[in-house]
Amino acid sequence: MVLRESLLALMKERPINKITVTDLCRQANLNRNTFYMHYHSPVHLLSSIEESFFAVIKELIERSILDDLHVKSSFVEICEHIADNSDLCTILFSDHGNGDYLERVIYILHDRSIEVWREQMPHMDVNTLESYYSFISSGSAAVIKNWIKHGMKETPQEIARFIEKVSRSVEYSFMQ
């Protein structure tokens, strides 16, 4: 936990590729041997933190997919998890973090979304559905990044509701 907090504190100041093990150990008040018992580099530590966060989001989404495609509940849970981990997400989605991380999270819904849409809109070809998914997922990612960037003033439910409303509007006009 102390390494996580120390890394996030350092990443507020500079990107991961500018953080050394010495910097991290000094910040965490640990010796380098302790660090190397668990991680190879600061990038490895960040990767481990990202994977833990990603695993929780993936579980939330997969659990909601078992019933059917419940985008609304998925986005509420994703937004709540982001809010609960605002310190991490502020860094992950900043210029010092991994720019593609949020898109990776949102992409979890890809296969199931395409499958459901193929059933709902059999007249649409797969390339069109892929473009539609790209539009919806990129837009959702942009809304979440903007929410984080501006201090998460809205509740997770409000952001999720906005994403749901816009997505449904686009879906409705798309199905016409």
UniProtKB/TrEMBL annotation:
InterPro entries: Homeodomain-like_sf, HTH-type_Tx_Regulator, HTH_TetR, TetR_C_Firmicutes. Residues 1-57 form the HTH tetR-type domain. Residues 20-39 bind DNA. GO terms for molecular function: DNA binding. Keywords: DNA-binding. It comes from the Bacteria. Gene3D superfamilies: Tetracycline Repressor, domain 2. PANTHER family: ACREF/ENVCD OPERON REPRESSOR-RELATED, TETR-FAMILY TRANSCRIPTIONAL REGULATOR. This is HTH tetR-type domain-containing protein. The lineage of its organism: Bacteria, Bacillati, Bacillota, Bacilli, Bacillales.
